[in-house]
Amino acid sequence: MKIRAAVLEEFGQPLVVQDVDLAGPAAGEVLVRLHACGVCHTDLYTASGADPSGYAPTVLGHEGAGIVEAVGEGVSSLAVGDHVVTLFSPQCGECIHCRSPKTNLCLAIREQQNQGYLPDGTTRLSRAGEPIRHFMGTSTFAEATVMPEIALARVSPDAALDRACLFACGLSTGLGAAMYTAKVEPGSTCAVFGAGMVGLGAVAGARLQGAERIVCVDMSDERLALARGQGATDVLKGGPEVVAQLLEMTGGFGFDYTFEATGLVKVMQQAVESARMGWGLCTVAGVAGRGETLDIIPRWLITGRRVAGSSFGGVKGRDGVPKLIDRWLAGDIDVEPFVSHALALDEVNRGFELMEAQDGIRSVLALA
Ligand SMILES: NC(=O)c1ccc[n+]([C@@H]2O[C@H](COP(=O)([O-])OP(=O)(O)OC[C@H]3O[C@@H](n4cnc5c(N)ncnc54)[C@H](O)[C@@H]3O)[C@@H](O)[C@H]2O)c1
Ligand SMILES: [Zn+2]
Ligand SMILES: [Zn+2]
Q1: By CB distance 3.0 to 4.6 Å, which of 68, 115, 148, 151 could disulfide with 82?
Q2: CA–CA separation, 235 vs 223, rounded Å?
Q3: Helix H or strand E segment including 99
Q4: pLDDT, tens digit, for every residue of 96-154?
Q5: Judging by DSSP bridges, how do beta strands 362-366 and 29-38 pair with one another?
Q6: Which of 105, 237, 239 is nearest to 181 (CA)?
Q7: Ligand nearest to C-alpha 197
Q8: Gap between the terminal Cα atoms of the chain
Q9: How far apart are CA 99 and CA 220, in angstroms?
């Protein structure tokens, strides 16, 4: 079939929205009619050429939601008409990581996915017979996509797809960092660095876990106001003084849980240093620039602080995303403030511009 899709042709150049060919689903694959897709930093990171593992041409996009239109041979867990959220982090259910409760990093299709192929080593996307590679196993800046069954989460049909798509990346990453990676305990104190989609999700996750005090740190007053809306009890302007301020707020000890959601290694360091002596856990969700390292004085660790990294919030996608969406539908999570701009697929480059200007939290493309 012919679909409209936003293709990364050349790094550093605007995406080109055009007709491409999409083949039907092979065994174990599913054709999804996409309805909405959020525009995330990772798309821009790859489009800019900064990502050393990037490739072109490819159809970008990974924060997608849609409806199953066809299933390939052997697909048993999804049927035509199911509402789905796309997962750049699949859940095969069978690999050693899927069988462990300790991680969500499924090993099943990583190698092929990282190179832009579906699990059988080929693509369903092409143009004039020339293959176009998939991106993050999702390629959701498009009217439709073909993805492995294990990379789709079936969600409630009551969930509006132009909101549900946020759970495909940023929102689940933040919520999960607090709920699944850190497992914030009721009554605890939390400090969240960064109030973008990921940090705001972490604030909401900490609230859902019953944290007593949640301090959010950001540079933008507008975003700090959004953090209050998600449950932050205090807000602070970021900067070199912030660790001292945070320690002062906790009698010099620091916070039970800290979260970093900026991608800045200096801020990661602050998040480590404001974690509580004795048992404070710092969860790093931000993606640092190529080659950057995180500087930690070992004494911070010897005296009982711990550091954890979190990919996709530690959420095992097929099990966890439907549950997070149910909590949104139950009224526990306020998703509305995160959607700042509704754009058409043709306006995808505008979505990048808005993100660079930090205008709003998320632009969502309407695809159907
Ligand atoms: N781990 C994952 O699986 C995963 C998934 C999605 C995104 N990410 C990463 O998470 C990070 C956050 O993503 P986002 O979409 O929320 O980004 P964002 O750019 O919208 O938010 C980052 C926030 O950090 C704030 N900030 C900048 N300097 C600061 C400072 N010194 N102190 C405190 N705050 C400061 C900015 O004002 C901004 O609000 C990015 O690095 C992104 O790549 C990780
Ligand atoms: Zn993302
Ligand atoms: Zn697996």
Answers
A1: 68
A2: 10
A3: helix 96-99
A4: 999 999 999 999 998 999 999 999 999 999 999 999 999 999 999 999 999 999 999 99
A5: antiparallel
A6: 105
A7: 1
A8: 16
A9: 41
